[in-house]
C-alpha cells in the first residue's frame, strides 16, 4: 500500500523543515502543471531540498519506506517525465540547488548545481568571457538537472552537440541515497563504463543529478545571420550541404521553416510583416558564428554564389542585433503560433539529414491520407535531421474531431519515420507520452539492457515510476 499524505508530509517536514515541503493542491499547482497541460494528476507532496545532503536524506527515506519519487528541475519538459503519473509520488524539485561551484575559463569548463537555469548558465559563462552554447526556447526556466536529464538539444547542436556532448561529468544521488561523484573535468578517461552518460538522458529514472561539469567554448566575435527564401526542402538541403562545406563548424544553425508558419504569425499578429521582400513557400534561417580574429565570416559571399547556383531566392542578412533577434523570435514562435490557430498534432522526429526532404514529402502525404485538409507545419533543425513535424487542424475544422484522429496521424508519421531508419523522439524524450511506443519500436536487446540497468540502480523501482520503460 502506498503511504498516505498524512504519513509522507510529516516525514518530509522532519527531514527538510516545513519551509521546504509543499502539500496543498494550490501550492503544488506550479509543479504539477506542465507546459502543454496534457498530463495532470496530483502528488503526495513537493520536496524542495536546499543541499545535496538533503536530497540524499529524502532518497534514503523514500528508499526505505518505498515512496515513489519524481525528479523535477524547471518543469518545462514536453513528454510528462517531470510530473507524476499515479498521484502517489513525491516530486523532488532541484530548483533550490542553484549556484556555481567552480568556473575555469582557461581549462574550458564550469561546475554548476543542478537548479541553475540555462539562462543563468549562459550568464555565468559570459561573465568568465566564455560561451555555454545550449540554446532552447525554454532556457529561462529549464534547469541544468532537467536539461541533462532530458539530454536537451536546441538550435546549435549542429556545431556543439546536445547536452550529452557538452557534459564532462555529473554528480547524482542514487535511488538509495548514495552519491555518485562523477564531476571530473577530464577530456579523456578510459577507465571503464562511462557512468555519467547513463544519467544524461535518463529522464529521472536512474538518479537525481545534483551538479554537472559543463564544457565552455570561446565566445564568437560576431554572428552572421540570414533569413532566406528557398524553393523547398531539397533546395534547403543542397544549401545546407554547400554552406557546411564552406563554413565547417562555424555554421552553428540551419533551421527550415514553412510559409504557413509565417502566415499564422502574420494572422495572429506575432510578426508585423513578411519575413523577406518576396513571398516563398519555404525559408531557411542560417547562422555563422565567427571566431575572434577571423574578421568576416563570409556568409554574404557564400550566399551570393548559392543564389547564382539557384539554391536561394530572396533573402535578408541581419544588420543589427535586434534584427537577428527578430529572425530568431519568428523561428521560436513556429510552435507557439499553432495553438492560436486551433488544435495541433505534434511529432519530434529525426531521420538521416539527407532524408529530411523525403520525410517531409512522405509524412505530409501520409497525414493528408488520414485527415484530408490537415495542414502540415514541419519546421526545425534540418542540419541535425530533426524536424518538429506538426500538423494544424484543417481550416474551419472542428478541434475535437481533429484530435480524435491524433493516434492515427501519429501512427502514419511514425511508420514513415521508422521505415526511413529514424527516431520517434529526437529531442524531447519518452517521459509518459511515448512509453508504449518505445516498447514497440526499440530493439528488444536494447530494451533488455535498459531494464537491466534500471533494476541494478533502482531495484525497488522508486524513481520516476511508469516513465520511459513504463
Ligand atoms: C517553449 C519550449 C521550447 C523547448 N525547446 C526545446 C528544444 O529546442 N530542445 C529540447 O531538447 N527541448 C526543448 N524543450 C523541452 C524542455 O525544455 C527541455 O527538455 C529541458 O531540457 C527540460 O529542462 P527542465 O529543467 O525543465 O526539466 P524538467 O521538465 O523538470 O524535467 C525533464 C526530465 O528530466 C528529469 N529530471 C529533472 N531534473 C532532474 C535531475 N536533477 N536529475 C535527473 N533527472 C531530472 C525529469 O524527471 C524529466 O523526466 C522545450 C520546451 C518548451 C516549453
UniProtKB/TrEMBL annotation:
The record's listing under SUPFAM superfamilies reads:
FAD-binding/transporter-associated domain-like (SSF56176), FAD-linked oxidases, C-terminal domain (SSF55103)
This protein's superkingdom? Bacteria
- Cofactor dependence: FAD
One GO molecular function term of this record is: catalytic activity
GO biological process assignments = respiratory electron transport chain
Q: Which Pfam families match?
A: FAD-oxidase_C, FAD_binding_4
**UniProt entry keywords in alphabetical sequence:** FAD, Flavoprotein
State the PROSITE patterns in the record.
Answer: FAD_PCMH
Q: Which InterPro entries match?
A: FAD-bd_oxidored_4_C, FAD-bd_PCMH, FAD-bd_PCMH-like_sf, FAD-bd_PCMH_sub1, FAD-bd_PCMH_sub2, FAD-linked_Oxase-like_C, FAD-oxidored/transferase_4, Oxid_FAD_bind_N
FAD-binding PCMH-type domain boundaries: 39-219
Q: Where is the signal peptide?
A: none
Q: Which family does it belong to?
A: Belongs to the FAD-binding oxidoreductase/transferase type 4 family.
Q: What is this protein called?
A: FAD-binding oxidoreductase
| Origin species | Pelagibacterium lacus
Query: What lineage does UniProt assign to this protein's organism?
Result: Bacteria, Pseudomonadati, Pseudomonadota, Alphaproteobacteria, Hyphomicrobiales
Amino acid at each position: 500500500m502506498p503511504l498516505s499524505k498524512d504519513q509522507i508530509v510529516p516525514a518530509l517536514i522532519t527531514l527538510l523543515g516545513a519551509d521546504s515541503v509543499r502539500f496543498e493542491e494550490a501550492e503544488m499547482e506550479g509543479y504539477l502543471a506542465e507546459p502543454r497541460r496534457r498530463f495532470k494528476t496530483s502528488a503526495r507532496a513537493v520536496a524542495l531540498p536546499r543541499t545535496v545532503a538533503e536530497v540524499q536524506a529524502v532518497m534514503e527515506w523514500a528508499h526505505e519506506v518505498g515512496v515513489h519519487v519524481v525528479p523535477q528541475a524547471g518543469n518545462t519538459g514536453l513528454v510528462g517525465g517531470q510530473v507524476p503519473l499515479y498521484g502517489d509520488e513525491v516530486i523532488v524539485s532541484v530548483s533550490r540547488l542553484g549556484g556555481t561551484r567552480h568556473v575555469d575559463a582557461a581549462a574550458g569548463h564550469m561546475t554548476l548545481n543542478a537548479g541553475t537555469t540555462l539562462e543563468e548558465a549562459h550568464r555565468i559563462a559570459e561573465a568568465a568571457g566564455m560561451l555555454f552554447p545550449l540554446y532552447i526556447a525554454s532556457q529561462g526556466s529549464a534547469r541544468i538537472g532537467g536539461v541533462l536529464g532530458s539530454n536537451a538539444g536546441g538550435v546549435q547542436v549542429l556545431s556543439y552537440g546536445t547536452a550529452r556532448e557538452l557534459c564532462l561529468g555529473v554528480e547524482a544521488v542514487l535511488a538509495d541515497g548514495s552519491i555518485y561523484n562523477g564531476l571530473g573535468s577530464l577530456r579523456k578517461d578510459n577507465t571503464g563504463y562511462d557512468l555519467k552518460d547513463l544519467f544524461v538522458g535518463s529522464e529521472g529514472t536512474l538518479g537525481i543529478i545534483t551538479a554537472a561539469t559543463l564544457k565552455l567554448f570561446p565566445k564568437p566575435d560576431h554572428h552572421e545571420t540570414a533569413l532566406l527564401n528557398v524553393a523547398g526542402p531539397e533546395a534547403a538541403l543542397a544549401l545546407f550541404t554547400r554552406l557546411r562545406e564552406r563554413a565547417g563548424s562555424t555554421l552553428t544553425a540551419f533551421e527550415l521553416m514553412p510559409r504557413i508558419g509565417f502566415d499564422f504569425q502574420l494572422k495572429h499578429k506575432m510578426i508585423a510583416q513578411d519575413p523577406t521582400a518576396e513571398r516563398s513557400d519555404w525559408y531557411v534561417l542560417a547562422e555563422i558564428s565567427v571566431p575572434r580574429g577571423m574578421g568576416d565570416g563570409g556568409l554574404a559571399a557564400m550566399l551570393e554564389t548559392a543564389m547564382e547556383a539557384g539554391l536561394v531566392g530572396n533573402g535578408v542578412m541581419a544588420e543589427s542585433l535586434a534584427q537577428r533577434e527578430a529572425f530568431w523570435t519568428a523561428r521560436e514562435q513556429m510552435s507557439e503560433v499553432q495553438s492560436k490557430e486551433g488544435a495541433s498534432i505534434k511529432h519530434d522526429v529525426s531521420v538521416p539529414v539527407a532524408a529530411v526532404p523525403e520525410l517531409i514529402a512522405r509524412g505530409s502525404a501520409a497525414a493528408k491520407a488520414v485527415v484530408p485538409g490537415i495542414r502540415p507545419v514541419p519546421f526545425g533543425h534540418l542540419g541535425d535531421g530533426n524536424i518538429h513535424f506538426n500538423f494544424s487542424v484543417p481550416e474551419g475544422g472542428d478541434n475535437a474531431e481533429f484530435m480524435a484522429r491524433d493516434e492515427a496521424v501519429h501512427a502514419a508519421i511514425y511508420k514513415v519515420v521508422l521505415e526511413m531508419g529514424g527516431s520517434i523522439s529526437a529531442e524531447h524524450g519518452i517521459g509518459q507520452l511515448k512509453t508504449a511506443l518505445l516498447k514497440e519500436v526499440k530493439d528488444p536487446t536494447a530494451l533488455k539492457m535498459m531494464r537491466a540497468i534500471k533494476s541494478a540502480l533502482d531495484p525497488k523501482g522508486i524513481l520516476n515510476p511508469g516513465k520511459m520503460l513504463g
